[in-house]
Design brief:
Elements (H helix, E strand, L loop, with lengths): L1 H13 L1 H8 L5 H12 L4 H12 L6 H15 L2 E8 L5 H15 L2 E8 L6 E6 L2 E6 H12 L4
Parallel strand pairs: 1-2
Antiparallel strand pairs: 1-3, 3-4
Helix pairs in contact: 1-2, 1-5, 3-4
């Protein structure tokens, strides 16, 4: 069920025409439900019923947000933490694994990390986990120092 809901939300995200139909408040919810029935084919009955109910209640346009929230609930239940690790340069797999292990030890959760490179950081890293952001980059330190030294007007 989790995978099918995620796949459907990804399809809505990838197909602008489908997204436009589902988000259009002028299209009757029953017409949206008919479109969904054609698209869903032999999908899981629970997923199918959920999506049809969302269409009936005029919430199907929010399916991408609903799927993201569902993913967060699943991750919380599984004690899984999704983080984005941004560094100034590409980390070796060994360095990235070491950072992930440290986060796992500190959080007591299984960590799934995506990695990104942003040369503007100069050095260090930025860790984003949900709404928590830890900025240990050189750019971040310089910005904090600038705010301390230059008073606000």
């Amino acid at each position: 069920m989790h995978a099918e809901l995620g796949d459907f939300a990804a399809a809505v995200s990838d197909v602008p025409e489908l997204r436009a139909v589902l988000r259009n408040p002028q299209i009757d919810p029953r017409a949206k439900a008919r479109v969904l029935e054609d698209l869903l084919g032999d999908s899981d009955e629970l997923v199918r019923n959920f999506l049809l109910l969302a269409a009936e209640k005029s919430r199907i346009g929010d399916i991408e947000e609903i799927a993201r929230e569902f993913e967060q609930l699943i991750a919380q239940k599984e004690r899984r933490l999704e983080v984005e690790l941004t560094t100034a340069y590409e980390l070796s797999d060994e360095d990235a694994s070491q950072i992930v292990r440290q986060i796992e030890q500190a959080s007591g959760r299984t960590v799934e990390a995506t990695r990104r490179v942003d040369p503007a950081l100069i050095g260090g890293l930025v860790l984003q986990a949900g709404s928590l952001r830890v900025d240990a980059s050189v750019r971040g330190r310089l910005e904090r120092l600038r705010r301390e030294l230059v008073p606000s007007r």
